[in-house]
Each structure stands twice: as C-alpha cells, then as structure tokens.
Design a protein that fits this description.
This protein is an alpha/beta fold. The chain has helices at about 10, 15-25, 35, 60-70, 95-110, 125-135, 160-170, 175-185, 200-210, 225-245, 250, 255-265, 270-285, 295-300, 315-320, 325-330, 345-350, 410-415, 455, 515-525, 535-545; strands spanning about 40-45, 75-80, 115-120, 140-145, 150-155, 155-160, 375-380, 380-390, 400-405, 430, 465, 480-485, 500-505, 510-515. The longest helix has 20 residues, at about 225-245. The site of FE2/S2 (inorganic) cluster has 10 residues, from loops.
Length: about 575
Amino acid sequence: MKEITLRSAEWFGREGKDGFIYRAWMKNQGIPDETFNNRPVIGICNTWSELTPCNAHFRELAESVKRGILQAGGFPVEFPVMSLGETLIKPTAMLYRNLASMDVEESIRANPLDGVVLLCGCDKTTPSLVMGACSVDIPAIVVSGGPMLTGNYKGQHIGTSDVWRYHDELRGNRMEEKELREIESAMCRSRGSCAVMGTASTMACMVESLGLSLPGNAAIPAADARRKVLAERSGLRIVEMVKENLTLSSILTKEAFENAIMVNAAIGGSTNFVIHLLAIAGRMGIPLELSELDPLSANIPLLVNLQPSGNFFMEDFYYAGGLPVVMKALEKHLHPHCITANGKTVKENNNDAIGYNEEVIAKIDSPFNLSSGLAVLKGNLCENGAVIKPSAASAHLLQHTGAAVVFENIEDYKARIDSDDLEVDESSILVLKNVGPKGYPGMPEVGNMGLPKKLLDKGIKDMVRISDGRMSGTGFGTVVLHVSPEAALGGNFAVIRTGDIITLDLSNRALSVALTEEELAERKSTFEPAPALTERGYVSLYINHVQQAHLGADLDFLRGNSGSKLSRDSH
Ligand code: FES
C-alpha cells in the first residue's frame, strides 16, 4: 500500500488523553484497535428514513457498501443525515435541500473521515449530499438507491408521471376515488425511487455523467440484486480513492459539468437538474451560468424514450443497457478524458457499452427527437431567465401568444381554478406567482398547475403555464418554470396582470409580455412585497439568504468550499 497520510490519523493516531478519548469510545462498540487504527476510515452517509420511502432500503444497501470497504482494508462507519422524502415533507423538500447539505458538510468535516460513500435516492437526497460533500472535498463516491420496478395496473405499465393524468381524470369525473386507491398499490410495488425519468433518476444520471459513481449506477432497479453488487464494489473503490487522493475537485471539472448537461439533454432529464447542477457548481467554485445550458444541449438529440417525455420506464432503461449506452452514443460530443470515480476516463468507462433495445435507447443517427434538453428563455418577463422542457411540452404551444390569467399565489390558484366564473379559454396563459425560492418559501413543484376544470371537461389537455416555481421531474406539459427574478422580489414578473398579452417564442428562446418599459416601471413603482411568513428558525435564515433560481437557489453563504481542515482542534 502506498504511504498516505490519513486524515483520520489526526484522531485515532494520537497519543495521550486525546487519542485515548477518540479510540476508547469507538471500542465501546466492540471494535478492536487494528480494525480502525491506521486504516482508511470511510463514512457511509445514509439518508435512510422510513419517512423517505424511496430510501427505506438503504440500511441493507449500507451493509453491502460496508462489505466492500472491509474487503479493501478500510473501516466503515455509517452515519445518518437529514433525509428528504419528496412525498411527505411539507411545504416542500426543496426548502430543506440546503439545510440537509449543511448537515452533510459539517458531519463529514467534523469527524475522522478519510472518504465518504453518499447513499442517495429520492430527489433532493442526491443534490444535498453531493453539495455538502463538495464543500469539504475529500474522496467521495455516490451509490444511488435505484428506481422502483415498473408499476402494473390491469396489464398496463404505469409510473409516477401517470399520477398527473389520473388527477385530471378524477377532476374531469372520468375516474372514481376508489379506482385511484387501487392504482396506488399497483404503481409503488417495490422498493426504490420513482420509476420514470423524474428528478431522482435524473439525479442518478447526473452523478454518473459527472463521474461521481461507478458506471451503470443510474439505472439498476432497487430490487435487482445487481444494485447491491454495485454498492459493494463502490465500497471497495472508495478505499482505493482515498489511497489515490481522488477528491471531488479532481473529478468535478468544468468539462465534467458540460458532460452532465449534454447527457441530461439526451435523456430528457428533469428541469430540476438545472437548479441542482448550478448549486453543485457553485459549491465547487466552477463558473457555470444558466445561459450555458442551452447551447450545450442544442446539438444533442433525444436518445431515451422514457416517461415523462416518452413511453418507457427506468427498468426498461436498465435492460436496454442504461446510461453507458447513452454516453457511448454521445462520444463525439462529450469530453472523453474526464476522470471518474473508478479512476478511468469517461471514454474508457463507456467504450464497450452495448444497447439492447432501440425502442428505449436510440442510436445517435436515428434519435427520438432531433432537439432535446432544456431551453433557457430570456425576455422582459424573466430578466434573469426561465426554463422549459420542450420534449415534455405540446409542439403546437411552443410558439404561442395569449392573454394572461394571473394567480397571485397558490391559495388564489386553488380558490379560483375550478370556478365557472374564471374567464379562461385554451388560448389563455396561466400565470402563477409567488411560488419561487423566497416567495413560497422553498420553490415548490406546483409549476405544472392543473388546468381549469371547465377546459378539462372540454377535453383540453395542455395550456401554456408560467411560474417562478418548479415542476416535478415526473410532470409534463408546456410549462415555463424558474422565472427569475421571482415575483416576491418585485421584478417584471411580479406586476403581470390578468389580460396582459404574453408570447412564448421557443425558437427565439423568448418569453415576453406586451408592455413597454415605462408601463412596467410604473407598475413596479407601487409594488409592495408580501409580508414575511415567519421570522424565526431555519426558514427565516433561508428566506434571508436563498439565491434566485438562475444561481441554483443555494444559500449565499454556502457557495464555495471550506475544505476538510478544522478551524479548531481540541478535547
Ligand atoms: Fe422519491 Fe419520486 S418520490 S423519487
């Protein structure tokens, strides 16, 4: 073994009282000296929680990781961090992403860890762990929990994206609540995260394309024994990474971020990708602007036919060869020499990938769609930008002008959307304000707001919708999101009124309202911000420090990296 100075030796290698205290209390767990002393100490950062059902199998996964670490001569120590279950946490898991990342950062830095395995699954559990680890910058590898098996209801394959359709069926009186209950258990029928290319799967693809996991990590179903094999191999590998001092900053170069952006385009990944990637880049000090995403995606065709943009499910994606097949297909676009967690380059990892189903993963010369990815819009309605996912939108609405129907906040929307008196038709543009980072607070996934009942009854399936909020990665529709500056800050978006004429012009990447600068300025001069919802605790800290969506919605004081050194060292 090459001689390395272990960070953990600062604790366990000491003599006298300090060393006694550090070692003695480890021994109360029945661990002998030789097991942890002078060996790479590897933290297993576990987001297991029964309140995060997508991650509820992570204790088992951690056991596989531990086996790998022990085999490689390391010493595994599992520790919990705040877990963010997308479905249960109110008002929105995004409110706590930055808090969880602080927990991860401080837990890693404060403890005798030489490397860390990040067990990530449900949406926010991936960016929060990666962001926190980035701010410490010791060797780290991600093990994702894997997607659920495909749901099956009356012989039909179903997944989370169908929830939005069922909801509309229910509101249109075409389905009864009783049937919806039956579908619940048919859809979530195994361990794991959402079975579609929603945010959790997008995040798993993001870490693989950034080089933060072993190849193939993104798609192996949670219930497949090969998920545990990957976990064990990741445990083996992290010990090697410590010996090689392969830190996150050695992997997360600007080129790695560009690779992730191109891969996200090819897979039709979630709009949430933008916000999390920008936040991770911010932690690494990598200059990355929202405006860079669009040109990087522009020449990338859509290669993956998964819900919500397509037809298939993550399980199908795995059987078709998974992300390595996509990355191989993109080889002429990607930076091939980026180093990844296994010590190999992107090219070396994916060179031999074979696709097994062209209905699921297309060849580069016969893609499912020539354009893909996320479009970044600019205009007088979103001075700092907004995003839309064209592959999940209706083609006929991507060039559209209509009159705004404005909801001032989510309560206003809920109160009026199904009213017979709402003046709206299918050419209208629904505008939802005050669901941004500061405004909600926490930027909830309400941007793909349901359509007015009276239009659903007419069979209308899509309309242009605009908000300063986010959309679930499993959602779809002609939905403009992440408008920045958000309404709570009093920019142009804050003063839009019902009846204003809005134009979405995707081909020119423009989102504008037919108002002059003077008209906008006059309206803004009387803008009054909504009163703050709370004045204490984390939420107060969040409101005062959260940045806008185009910067990744991180807290301003969390950007950057403090390294792994401790400011004080005493006992
Ligand atoms: Fe956890 Fe979808 S709710 S991944």
